[in-house]
Amino acid sequence: MIQRQDIQLEQERVSMLYRRLDTVREQTEKALAGAHARGGPGGTRQARVEREVAADEYARRLAQLNSVERGLCFGRIDLGRIDELGEALYIGRVGLRNEEHETVLVDWRAPAARPFYAATASDPAGLVRRRHLRTRGRTVVGMDDEVFDLTQMSDGDRDTLVGEAALLAALERGRTGRMGDVVATIQTEQDRVIRSGLHGTLVVQGGPGTGKTVAALHRAAYLLYTYRDTLERRGVLVVGPNATFSRYIEQVLPALGETDVVLSSVGELFPGLAATQVDVPGVARIKGDLAMVEAMARAVADRQRVPDGDLEIELGPLTLTVPHAVCVKARKRASRHPHNAGRKLFALDLLRALALDEARRLDAPDDPEDLEYARKLLWQEPQVREAIDALWPALTPYRLVGELFTDPVRLAAAGLSEDLLRPRGAPWTVDDVPLLDEAAELVGEEPQTQAQRTAARRAREEDELYAREVLTITGLEDIDVAAFAEWQHDRGREYLTTASRAAADRGWIYGHVIVDEAQELSAMAWRMVMRRVPTRSMTVVGDLGQTGNAAGARSWGEMLDGYVRWREERLTVNYRTPKEIMDVAADVLREVAPDQKPPRSVRHGEPPHAIRVTPHTLPGVLARLVGTPVDGRLAVITTDERYAEVAALLPEAVTLDPLDSPVAVLTVTRSKGLEFDEVIVVAPEEMAGRELYVAMTRATRRLTVLHEGELPATLRGATRRV
Ligand SMILES: Nc1ncnc2c1ncn2[C@@H]1O[C@H](COP(=O)(O)OP(=O)(O)OP(=O)(O)O)[C@@H](O)[C@H]1O
User: Fold this and answer.
1) What three-state secondary structure class fits 104?
2) How far apart are CA 146 and CA 162, in angstroms?
3) What CA–CA distance (Å, rounded) separates 683 from 33?
4) 444 has binding-site annotation
5) 206 has binding-site annotation
6) Which of 64, 270, 446, 693 could connect to 257 by a Cys-Cys bridge, CB 3.0–4.6 Å?
7) How large is the average pLDDT for residues 92-116?
8) Which residue ranges have their beta carbon within 6 Å of ligand 1?
9) What percent of the chain has pLDDT over 90?
C-alpha cells in the first residue's frame, strides 16, 4: 500500500528535481547569451565556427529543458533485494546532474533507464520495484507500484502489462486531436523496437493501435540521443501518409526535446511540390509498378531524336547540313549521360559539324580557333537553337512527366497505357511524385535559366549593398565588403537547421529514415525513399492488414528484398480499440488478410452498433448521433464516393481542420493513422474489406455503422441494431 508518507518523500525528490531544472535552465540561458555576445566577424574562421557550434548546442539544450516541464520525472526503479531496497534511480524526460555532478535524474533513453521499460514479472531485469509517479504541474498526485517479488507471484501476474494502472489511466484520457508522447508508459515490446540498433532496416509489423507510430517517434528520439554524432549532421526523416497525419504527430518529438527531424509524406518528398490527390486504383497500380523505371527511361529516350535523314538548317542563303550518321553518333555518345548533360554534348557535336560545313561552303579555313568562334555564333542563331531544341530539348522533371501524361503518342512511345492520359493542367498526384523523382535522376541537373542567373546576381548585389551599409554604420569601413557579405551569407546558411536544409534538398542523404503506414508505399515510392538513405538505416512501420493503396505492399519482402536484408519486430497489443470492437474487426481482418493475426486489446468498451438507414433517414440519424457524442472527439468516416454527400450533411464540421474540429468528416484514406473517441462509419457495405477494417479500428470508445444496403456478413453477427 502506498502511504501518504511515500507521496511526501517523492514530492521532496520531485521538488528538488524541478529546482535543479530551473538552475540548469538559467545557466544554459546565460551560456547561450554569452556565446551570442562573443559572435561577429572577428577572429579566425575556426574560432567563429567553434563559437557557433557551442551556441547551437546551448540553444538545443535550452529548447530541450523548456520542453520537459510537464512530467519531468515520471518513474523510479529500485534495484537490489525486496527486503532491503537498495539503490533507487529516478527516470525522467531529460537527464540531470547535481552540483557534485552526480546523476539525479536519468534520461529515459539512457541505458540505465532500460529496466524501467524492460522489466517484466517473469524477468525483472534486476529490479525489485518499479514505481510510476503521477504529477500535476510540479505536484506529485499519485503513484503506482509494481513489486517484483517472484516468490509471491501467480502465473497470471507474471504476464501483466508494464505499469498497468498508469497505462490504463493514460489510455482513459479523451483524445485531444494531437498525438502525445508516452515516455511514462512505454511497454516492453515497444521498448525493444525503440532501442533496436541504428544499423540496417527494422520492420515493425503490428495491427491497428499497437503503438507503431508512437514507438517509431520515440525511436527517432532515442536514436538522436544515442547516436547524436552520426545523426545530427544528416538528420532523420519521418515519412507519413499525408500532411494531416504529419500535423497529428508533429508535437511528439518537440515534447521529447527533439526538433531536428523532417516530417514529410510521399506527396511532399519532391521539394517544391505538395501533392495530395491520389489516382484511381488502376492508374495508381501502373504508376507504382517498377515497370515504370524502364518506361521512364523510354520516355527520356523518346526526347532524344535524330532526323530521319540529314539535318538541314537554312541560314539566309546558306543551307547547312549535318549528315544523318553524324547525328546518330552524337546521340549515341550523349545518351550515356543524364539527359540535360547529354544535351550539351549533343549540341556541341552538331554545332561542330555545322561549323565545319559552313567553313567548307564558304571556303573558309578550318582553323580550330575560327571553328570555335563560328560554333558560338551558330548557337546564337534561332534556327539552330530551334532545330536542336526540337531534337533534344532541355527538360525539367515536370516537363518530362507532364508532357508524357498529356500526349498519347509519347505514352505509346514509352510503352505505357492510354489509361494514364490526363488533361493538361491536371494537378500532380501523390503517385506522380516518385515518377518526378525518377525523372529528376534521368534528366539530371536542371538547366539554369537566364532568369535564375539574373536572380542570383541580384541577390549577390543586394548582399553587398547591405554589407556596405552595416560596415558604414559600425565604422568598420576598412573591412572588405565582398568578404563581409559572403561571411554574412554563410552565417545565414549555417543557422539554418539540418532539418530545414534537408527538406529543401532532393539530393539530401539522411542518417536515418522512418516510414510510417509503410504498407501504403508503392514499389516506385520505395525507390524514391531508398535514394535518400543509401545506408538503408531505416525503420519501416506498418500493417499489411490495412493496405489500401492498389500499388501498396502485400508482403514486406516484396517491397524491401531488392534493397536490403531486413529484420522484423511485431507489436501485438492494441492500446486504442476496445476488445468488443476489435472482436468484430477481427472477423473483417480474417476475410481480407487471413495470414495476419489481430492484436489483443487492453481496453474495454461497448460493442459496435449497426443502424439501418435510408437516403431519407440518414441526415436525421447522423444529426442525432453527432448531437449526442461520448465525451471527446468524433469522426464520421466514409468512402471517397460518399464523402461529398456526407460532408454536405455536416457543413460546420468540414469548415474546420479535422484535427481541431470536435466532429471530423473523413474518407478512409484520410483517417489512416488517426484516432477518435467515437467513430461513425457511413456505408460500410460500400467499403473494401481493408477499408472497413481501417475505419472500424479508429475508435477508442464507441463505434456505430450506418448502412443502407445489406450489412457486410462480417459485421452482421457481432453488432446490435438499435
Ligand atoms: N505504451 C503506451 N502508453 C500509452 N499509450 C499508448 C502506448 N502505446 C500506444 N499508445 C496509444 O495508443 C494509440 C495508438 O497508437 P498508434 O497510433 O501509435 O498506433 P498504430 O499502431 O500506429 O495504429 P494504426 O496502425 O491504426 O495507425 C495512441 O493513442 C497511443 O498514444
Assistant:
1) strand
2) 9
3) 60
4) no
5) yes
6) 64
7) 93
8) 167, 170-171, 179, 182, 185-187, 190, 206, 208-214, 543, 575-576, 673, 675, 697
9) 60
212 a known binding residue?
Answer: yes
Ligand 1 nearest atom to the CA of residue 184, by list position? 3
Distance 539 CA to ligand 1 centre (A): 17
Which grid cell sits at 166?
498508469
Q: Please tell me whether 75 is known to bind a ligand.
A: no
Count the Cβ atoms, other than its own, within 10 Å of residue 710: 10
Cell matching residue 324: 544523318
Residue 564 pLDDT exceeds 80? yes
Q: What is the pLDDT of residue 694?
A: 96
In tens, the pLDDT along 223-282 reads 999 998 888 888 899 999 888 888 888 888 887 877 778 999 999 999 989 999 999 999
Atom of ligand 1 nearest to the CA of 542: 25
- How many angstroms from the chain centroid is the CA of residue 582? 28
Cα–Cα distance measured from residue 148 to residue 120, given in angstroms and rounded to the nearest whole number? 8
Atom of ligand 1 nearest to the CA of 546: 25
Angle at Cα 106 formed by Cα 101 and Cα 111, nearest 5°? 110
Spatial separation of the C-alpha atoms in residues 705 and 585, rounded to whole Å: 12
Q: Measure the CA–CA gap between 103 and 542, rounded to whole angstroms.
A: 38
Tell me how far the alpha carbon of residue 712 lies from the centroid of ligand 1, in angstroms: 28
> Quick one: which atom of ligand 1 is closest to the CA of 211?
18
Residue 387 CA to residue 314 CA, distance in Å, equals 10
ipTM: 0.98
The distance of Cα 31 from the centroid of its chain, to the nearest Å, equals 34
Max avg pLDDT among 176-180, 253-257, 290-294, 607-611: 290-294
C-alpha distances out from residue 71 to 59, 511, 619, 654, Å: 21, 30, 44, 35
Ligand 1: which of 213, 520, 577, 600 to mutate, judged by most atoms within 8 Å of the beta carbon? Answer: 213
Return the sign of the alpha-carbon dihedral for residues 554, 560, 562, 566: negative
Query: Nearest Cα to 103, choosing from 85, 89, 87?
Result: 89
Closest C-alpha to ligand 1, atom 15: 211
Task: Report the atom number in ligand 1 closest to the C-alpha of 673.
Answer: 27
Q: 3-class SS at 68?
A: coil
Residue 170 C-alpha to ligand 1 middle, in angstroms? 11
How much is the pTM? 0.85
Q: Do the annotations mark residue 207 as ligand-binding?
A: yes
- 344: annotated binding-site residue? no
CA dist 340 to 270, 301, 305, 390, Å? 19, 12, 14, 14
Measured between alpha carbons, how far is residue 659 from residues 175, 216, 267, 629, 666 in Å?
Answer: 10, 21, 20, 17, 11
- Ligand 1 centroid to Cα of residue 160, in Å, is 18
pLDDT of the residue at 448? 59
Q: Tell me how far CA of residue 609 lies from CA of 174, 318, 584, 704, 721, in angstroms.
A: 21, 85, 11, 5, 6
Residue 252, number of CB atoms within 10 A of its CB: 25
Question: Any known ligand binding at 176?
Answer: no
